[in-house]
Design brief:
109 residues; mainly beta; 4-stranded antiparallel sheet
Amino acid sequence: QLVESGGGLVQPGGSLRLSCAASGFTFRWYSMAWFRQAPGKEREFVANILGSGRKQYARSVEGRFTISRDNAQKTAALQMNELKPEDTATYFCNVDIYWGQGTQVTVSS
């Protein structure tokens, strides 16, 4: 099971931190990813982090977002800085075939 939290409404240029809590599997064995889906658009990759800690980012968020994980706590996070209106979407946590329910991020003045 994956449960996201931390979404909300923020002004352009602001920051949010999303969290994903995992349960029911050996978290440290798996890479973990964040995806997002804006209204009327396909779900897109945002970032991922391997069990080793290696990270990858979509070009649109590189330098602004930071993904992290805590294997002991079975949690992952996405720190989002310098948010833009185009970052508005529902953000999903993903591990293997499992998805969270999503958390809404809205960037608007």
